[in-house]
Amino acid sequence: RMDAILMRAADNTERAEYLTFRLCGEEYAIDILDVREIRAAGAVTRIAQAPAHVRGVINLRGTIVPITDLRLAFGLPAAEREADTVVIILDLDGACIGVAVDAVVDVLALAADDIRPPPQFHAAINAAFIRGIAPMAGRMLIVADMAWLLAPAPAAEAA
């Protein structure tokens, strides 16, 4: 009986759940605790002089929510058909923001040691959104930290 309890304790490594989604054929993961809901992409109200990656805003049950196109925010090419995108509504430290992605894939549980530190990139590459990389069964899962979306834009971008 004691052996069974010890084995269960050893298997009980700290795991967190992540929502996985696809952008340009690559899989990304975000902490499921940041996800408020998933919805089909709909009409947005465009905002003049917003950065290119900001699609606009939506009214979500009385809350005005900005929608960010993650393809553009990550420096990837725009989607050929925006109608196919999905919007993930995030709650980041009380701020509600929507992110448009190509498709939601799955929910996975990852242990902290499944996620490797992000590689060191050349200074010209902005990888502030990468929390780590999780190698999984022949594929690499990019674990993203969505809090960087709340960071103020550099002055050069704002102009």
How would you describe this protein?
- The protein has three helices and ten strands, in the order αβββββαβββββα.
- With 159 residues, it is mainly beta.
- β1 and β2 (26-31) form a beta hairpin.
- It is globular and about 45 Å long.
- Residues 1-10 and 154-159 have low confidence and may be disordered.
In one word, what is the shape? globular
List SSEs in N-to-C order. HEEEEEHEEEEEH
Kindly estimate the percentage of residues that lie in beta strands according to DSSP: 35-45%
> Mean pLDDT, nearest integer?
82
Number of strands: 10
Largest sheet composition: 5 strands, mixed
The low-confidence parts are 1-10, 154-159
Number of helices: 3
Output the radius of gyration: 18 Å
Strand order of the largest sheet: 8-1-2-10-9
Helix content: 10-25%
What is the structural class?
Answer: mainly beta
Quick summary:
With 159 residues, this protein is mainly beta. Helix content is 11%, strand content 45%.
List the helices and strands and how they pair.
Elements: H1 2-11, E1 15-23, E2 26-31, E3 35-40, E4 54-60, E5 63-69, H2 70-73, E6 86-92, E7 95-101, E8 103-111, E9 130-136, E10 139-144, H3 155-158
Parallel strand pairs: 2-10, 5-7
Antiparallel strand pairs: 1-2, 1-8, 3-6, 4-5, 6-7, 9-10
Key terms for this structure?
159 residues; mainly beta; five-stranded mixed sheet; 3 helices; 45% strand; disordered N terminus
